[in-house]
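Same chain as my last thread, 134 residues:
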Amino acid sequence: MTETNVPAELTYTPEHEWVRRVSPTTVRIGITDFAQEQLGDVVFVQLPEVGSEVEAGESFAEVESTKSVSDIFGPLNGTIAAVNDELESTPDLVNSEPYEAGWLVEIAVEESAELDAQLGDLLDADGYRQVIDG
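reply #2:
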């Protein structure tokens, strides 16, 4: 089995999403290396509209692979601030660069303290490794 890439600087959800803070009130979201390995070749990504509300634990997007369709769940509460339009023409970026060019959306919250609190509820790299190692 190959070693799954779990960058230490990110936070994670048990549903295999990663979260990277990109500003005091905004995070970038994607699926983890483990998740893209499990999915197989990604052929389509359905993303929400900019301005849509996201609720923690609720499905807000879908990633379709040759094996299945998987829901993407909100890691926190906020508003879609940006979507990765590149995925429309090159959905396989989710496979080849899950932590870089294969990001899905950016979510904004009202205040940095609110974001701090929500990020505190997520898993660090070691916690996420325990999820995938079972």
